[in-house]
Structure formats: structure tokens, C-alpha cells
Amino acid sequence: MGELQQSPWQLQNEFRQSLLSAPQIPLHPAAWMCRWLTGSCQCLACWIEVNLAVSCKIWSCLILTRPSPCCCRNYLFVVLHIALQAAVYAEYTWEVFVYCWELEFHLVLLLLPYLLLLGNMGCFILCSCANPGIITKSNHASLMKTYAYDGALFQEGIVCATCNVEKPARSKHCSFCDVCVHRFDHHCVWVNNCIGAFNAKYFFLYLFTLTVMAATIAIITAAFLIQVVLLSNMMHGSYIDDQGQEHAVEIFFLIQHLFLTFPRIVFMLGFVILLTLILGAYCCFNIYLALTNQTFNEWYKFRRYRHSHHLTLQPCDRKVVYKNAYAKGVWMNLKEIFKSPAVLERKKKK
């Protein structure tokens, strides 16, 4: 059992010196290329940071001075989304990728976050630019026939006061976009678009790839830090505190040492772990909605109206039981996400 009779600062400097004095491992051309590209990544992150501040001022002025509260779409959260992704990938490329390559991590594993980023950005663009299912006079008649009214959450004969058209079943008027959307789920500020019948599949893939992307970066970064601890043999050592007392290395000391040695990496790891947990929970919730053929709007409306008299005319002492009229089984529910009946009807007419 070796003893490390050194302070955390001495351990930090010693570990950095050990990395510098370690036998030189020839770098793969991809690693040299990534080192060269990281300068550009940091410049991009700084540019996005400056433009984010400018955008905040511009959009706050526009929102405060616009005459109507409707149609409040803006790109503030989109810019924030891109800035966070750029910051995480800049740190991953600048430090984690290079260190992991020197520790002989598999190249395919290290390149996996970049492949997921390409897929995620593709889904993001499709989800943001695609028509979510805007109801117009030309498609209103066909969309009225797509879903039947359930008589509980969606009543027949209700006219949208803004669009001046009868609302089809499962539709809702979006106050942000100022349009009625078919099979309305919610308005997502991160893609700056509504989520409806026509782009629900893109949003589902976007959310899934974003969750896997965050989890992959978290796993690779955690594996790197664990490898550092194992190579330094710190868990079998000890240290002397300010009072001169000797202590065995504990988890708290280990985390403190790693944070002092790799502050940006540890901070990024905490951020992506938190992001993975939040996105993972939200992704599971969306899987549940897809399997039961519900939208977030319908799930929320049912919870809001569950204890009201809109769902039933039965006496109040009897329990209200609502049956989802649009559920058709797991396979058919999933098929409806990726092949919406309205989309199929539109293709037939073409």
C-alpha cells in the first residue's frame, strides 16, 4: 500500500508532469486534425457567445415593443441550443478526445459523438423547418375526416376564434405560431416550431439522438477519469491535511483532486450527466405518449379535466374513467407517429 505524502496541489502538478513525461505515443492523423480544428471550435464558441448576448438584447426589444402578444416565435433558444452544443463539443475535442487517444481508447468510440451530432443536427433542421401540420382552407376538409371526435377532450362544432375555421379533432391553435396545428403536441422553443402530425417523427428522432449523444459523451468522459485514477494508483494512497493528520484517499478527496486537475472536464461531465438524466426522463415520457397514441396536449387536457364535469354526466360519487379513443395497439400507435394518416392522405391526392 503506497502512501502519497503530498498535498492536492502537489498531486495535481505531479500528475500533469507524468502526462508530459510519459512515453510519446504517435498520434493518429485524426487526432492531429482534431487538435487543429479545436482552435476553430473555440473561436466559434466565442462568436456564438457574443452573438447570443446581442440576440438577447434585440429580441427583448422586439418582444417588448411588438403590438400583439401572438406569434412570439424567436431564435433566442435556438441560439442558446447551438451555443451549449458548441461549448460541450469544443471541450470534448480539445481535451477529452486527445487524452483518450493517448490512453489508447478505440477511435470508433471517440468518433461516435460526432456521428451522433450529424444525425441530431439533421433531425433538428428537419423538425425546425418542416410543416408541423398547419390547418389551411385547402386541407381543412381532408383533416376534418382524419380523426373522429371523442366527445370528451375534443368536441364537434368548436370554431377557432383566430383562424375562423372549425377545429378538427386532436388539433389546437398555437399562440406562438398563431396557426391551428393538426394533431398538436406542443410548441418547442428549442426547435422554434410546433410539434404536430407532420414533424412528430423528426422531433422523436431529434430527442432520441440528443439523449444518446449526451449519454455517450458522459460515458467516454467518465471512463477517461476512471482510467486516470487507476493509472495514478491514488485509491491506494494517503494524504496529509492542513493539521498534519494522515488520511486515506476518499471519494470526496478524489473528486476534488480531479476537479483541480481537470476543472473543465469535470464541469462538463457534471453538465452532460444532468442533461442525460433530464433528456432521458423526457424521452421515456415521449415513448409512453407514442405507445399510447397520445399527444402532450391531450395528456395535459385529460389531467386538467379529469375531475371536471366535461368528461361525464354521471353523478359525482362515481369515478370518471376516460378511454383513449385513438389508441389502436402498440404497433399501430408507433406506425402513426412515423406515417401519419394525414400524410398518407396527402400523398394519395398527389
Automatic annotation (TrEMBL):
One GO BP annotation of this record: protein targeting to membrane
GO CC list: endoplasmic reticulum membrane; Golgi membrane; plasma membrane
Membrane topology: Multi-pass membrane protein
Pfam families documented for this protein: DHHC
Description of its domains: The DHHC domain is required for palmitoyltransferase activity.
Family to which the UniProt record says this protein belongs: Belongs to the DHHC palmitoyltransferase family.
Protein's name in the database: Palmitoyltransferase
The species this protein was found in: Phasianus colchicus (Common pheasant)
